[in-house]
Amino acid sequence: MNDLDHLFQDRRKKAFEKGGRYALAIARTLNLFPALFAILVLVLYRKLLEEWLPPDFPVAWLLAVILTPVLASTRFRTFIQPADPFFLAPAPDKLTRYWQRTFTYNATIQCLAVLGWMAFLSPLFIQRLGDGIAWVMAVVVLITFKVFLLWLRLHELFGKHPRWIDPVIRWVTSALVTIWLFQGEFFGIPLLAALGWTGFLILHHRKRRPPQGYIPWDRLVSEESATVTRYYRLASQFIDVPQVGNEVRIRRGWGWLNRFPARRPEHTYLYLYQRTFLRYREPFGVSLRLTLVTGLALIWAEFSLSLAASLYFLGLWMTAVQLPWIRRIHRFQPWFRLYPLPEQQKTLGLSRLVWIILLAQSLLILVLPALTWEKPFPSVPLLLAGGWTFSTVYARWRIPRSMRKRKAVSTMRS
Hints:
Elements (H helix, E strand, L loop, with lengths): L1 H4 L1 H24 L2 H20 L6 H14 L19 H37 L3 H27 L6 H18 L6 H19 L9 H20 L31 H12 L4 H16 L5 H16 L4 H4 L6 H4 L5 H22 L1 H6 L6 H35 L1
């Protein structure tokens, strides 16, 4: 039983140690890139504050859009494992302490995340919305509601019958809180409405309290597995992670693309990688999301071509670094040995596919700016020319070069 007293701390410590090893491995592969990326973000942020942002820009709405998902996204880590000793140890008092420590841990981590976002946004807040005291008050309000939303999430997880409306309520509540907070009308009717809505949610969730001793183990294990898988998938973008998996999805609406390229031996790997891209959940999903998000971000960046170009190339680059993962799926497949083809075709097939995807994304991102900007000419054509140049250089030069370098390193090791 003494082990159960320290079970949460032991699992948290092991999770931190494993996360630290992955972070160190990623840092070794990236060299100075994180520092350069941080410097680039700070420089762009400073130019945004001093030069690019027009005086009438709706900063309150921008902060609400950024902080609503920060409040609503409440990942709840429990460190529960499928073969958990709790199944064999009916000790309600120790279980209660375990859940209390779990809630405290998650509340601390997520409040630190809110504080980090508010610290990053503090120059914008203090320049346009209020002084330092107002910023501190905003942080207190956001952290209070973050803990409250985490408490709602805990009730959702432990509820006997989770409902689709629960996440909707959390997102709507987060949006209302951020709009109410940053629009500057705290008191009067808005404050009464906020207190009334909070009281309603408390009563609503207390009525749905599960019976004493009820623990939805399957749901908790699934939630924990999904969170850990997300971390592994993030790390797999930079290093090899053996635990990471991927989900196959049949996208019938995109099947017509498999008629291309023509059925010829030199297109074998291109065809294989293209089918993989269309059938697997990632990186197809992330490419689609980055295209949409970048296009939406460009709608509000018309006032500065430099800012629009930065966002545009950042979206292209974030997609480009994900795409070589397609080749990793087939590294150990037996049919590569059954049907040997020239090794250069692997590089050529991947290079062609990445080139086609980036060319298409360069064009699709600019559809929304072309339709919404008051003066899309010549900015949109210039961005498109830059995007196609970036696509060609990355796919035709960067990918073959990195694959030759990786092969040389593996040959030296063997």
